Amino acid sequence: MSHLTNLLRKEVKELMTGQMIASMLLMIFMFAILGNVIGNVQSEAMKQEVRISLLDLDMSAESKKLTELLNSQQNVALTTLGTESTEDALKIADNHSSSALLVIPSGFGEKIDNKEGADVDVYGIVRGLGIMDTTNSAKTQVAVSVINELIAQEYVREAYPGTEPSNILNPVRPKSFIVLRGVVSEGSPEMITSLLMGQSVLVPVILMIAIMFAGQMVITSMGMEKENKTLETLLTLPVSRSTIILGKIGGATIVAFIMSIIYLLGFGYYMRSITPNSSISMPSLSMGVLGYALLGVSLFLAILVALSLSMLLGVYSQDTKSAQTMIMPVTLLVMIPFFLLMFSDYTTMPTALRALLFAIPFSHPMIASRALLFGDYAVVIAGIVYMALFAVILWLITIRVFRSDRIITAKITFRRKR
Amino acid sequence: MTAIVVDGLRKTFGKIAALDGVTFSVEEREIFGLIGPNGAGKTTTLRILSTLLKPTEGSVSIFGHDVVKEDSEVRKFISYLPEDAGAYKNLKGTEYLRFMAEFFASGRDRESMVKRAAELTGLGERLNDKVSTYSKGMMRKLLVARALMMRPRLAVLDEPTSGLDVINAKEVRDTIKRFAKEGTAVLLSSHNMLEVDFLCDRIALIDRGRIVETGEPEELKKKYGAKNIEDVFIEVVS
Question: What top-level class would CATH report for the domain B2-86+151-237?
Answer without folding.
Answer: alpha beta
